[in-house]
Amino acid sequence: MRLSGITPSGHTQLGNHLGAVARWAADGGAEDLYFIADLHAMTTTHNPAGLRGRTSEMLAILIAAGIAPERVFVQSDLARELGALTWVLECTCSYGEAARMIQFKEKAAGQSGVRLSLLTYPVLMAADILLQGAAEVPVGEDQSQHVELARVLARRFNSTYGEVFTVPRAVLPLTGARVRDLADPTRKMSKSNRDSAGVVFVLDEPDLIRRKIRRAVTDAHSAPAYEPDERPGVSNLLEILGACTGTTPQEAAAAHTSYGALKEAVANAVIETLRPIRERTLALLADPAELERVRKAGGTRAAERGEHRLSSALRLIGAG
Ligand code: AQP
Question: A Gene Ontology CC term for this entry (predicted)?
């Protein structure tokens, strides 16, 4: 079973959809689990009401995108279980192991008032994985060190106190397109980009999507060509078009002779790809009682899945 998370650090954007969520919905295994990592969105300054709203929105988007509701849960609905297991795992982890995480060093550098949770969040991530008994964790390069820590902690706990945890391993994610920021194609599209002019959000209105794509940075050439290193802006548009229409970026390039026509085609393809998801999401958000029911059921199932591991771990480590 594979466990994948998505963090509500901002509104879900096109890169999240084409790069991850659409693939999860289309190609994910029947046993795979997906969670909204809202506790992970608190390691730096955050707005509580904003976070709560984005968490509900993201839950609705995942379901609207076609992920089976019974495969989805919200991390904070397991806050008690995860809090307890994180403590157990922190008592299995050295300070040095946490402090050497590259992401911690990068994110903490130059920040004042660094939250302790920024240091310990890889242990919470280990708890996410070990509580569910996930064997495989699809992650990019930036998160593989954290999965390695989860492996180390699972092995250490099992050999020191008794066999409880499945030892997980990092696997290559099911990746779709890598989507770059439309206004600055040298960087990836991200939900938390301070300037959202180059970010298409899944719930953007069609007119706004069209405006953002029309304004996308390209280059001084006259016709589109797929050359990601030399021409990242137009290549990004071709990748997006390819991902939305099921063609290759090279085929998309061959089909368009001007940037204007390409941008119109990209805008139409993105709008039509996101339209049904946007409509279903808005319908789900308009029925908060139903969304709450789905959320509760997911949280209960996820807590039940991990219950025996948590109680065994607590008993073996000498608590309870
Ligand atoms: N631009 C992207 N292109 C393709 N895939 C992307 N993903 C994110 N951005 C792109 C994929 O979305 C999944 C969930 O992402 P995440 O929430 O775990 O974190 P992230 O990669 O850090 O996403 P963001 O949007 O860039 O968030 P912030 O701004 O908080 O850093 C992952 O599978 C990710 O690869």
Answer: cytosol
